[in-house]
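Format notes (please read before filing issues)

Several people have asked whether sequences and structure tokens are stored in separate files. They are not. Every record keeps both together, in the order shown below: the sequence lines, then the token lines. Line labels are part of the format and must not be stripped during preprocessing.
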Amino acid sequence: MLKIAYDPIYAHPLPPGHRFPMLKYELIPAQLLHEGVITEENLFSPEPLDEETILLTHDRDYWHQLRDLTLPAKEQRRTGFPLSAKLIEREIRIAKGTIDGCGYAMKYGVAFNVAGGTHHAGSNWGEGFCLLNDQAIAANYLLSKRLCSSILIIDLDVHQGNGTAQIFEHEPRVFTFSMHGDKNFPFRKERSDFDIPLDDGVGDEKYLKLLRNTLPELIKNRKPELIFYLAGVDVLASDKLGKLSLSREGCKARDRFVLEQCKLNNIPVQVSMGGGYSPDIKDIVEAHCNTYKLAVELFF
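Then the structure lines:
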């Protein structure tokens, strides 16, 4: 059974200027339910994450500043969000959803978090709408519980997973792979274990060729016991922040290839949705929903 972490708090109201990016978090499950791709049984609402697990990944002082709403104004501006108790609850529920999703992925092959993909959050900073790094938190949880000893993070959001790269810089059990816009945010990149920086305007053919020439070899060499996939749809040509030129079909082919590789190699995969900033919300929702439909087709 496909299990999907979702809670209404994922789309909680924010001040003007912040609401549009949040709309997709309620529209994605609503669209999947409307089309009959899933039922309510597929959705689960994660509990808040405990502090002990957060501290496996994030520095104590940074977490306490988030928890106590004392993060300095300059650091709040870096995140792009005004800090609030509701926002922190949202972040810790998203992270717990990704952890729970790993358990479901190990059972069923694949699992999703409607939100997540907060890859710009480093061990002691937040930026780019990311406060806590959900997939990094989940990876460290799995390692601490000895549920995995080799993990691959595939980050195909248009923006480099700089926070994830920094967190696992000295952790050989986690291999970080990021394929992203070279001249896009973040403008100060960290070093992933393997980075593919892309020129502006790269389209379907070149993008998919690079991915197909890279991912099978990474899986073969690393032999991961679990894969995290960050499936941002800000690679679309329509995306106002992306600078790449993938079509909707190209984005779908990307997701199909990643999921097929996981299925072919019998590796469970947890999927977090990442970014998407096309001016028409329908483009964002449809591209994200395609990822879920592919998972149903391939795994169930």
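For reference, the curators noted about this record: The first strand starts at residue 3 and ends at 5. Residues 3-299 form a domain with the Arginase; Chain A fold (CATH 3.40.800.20).
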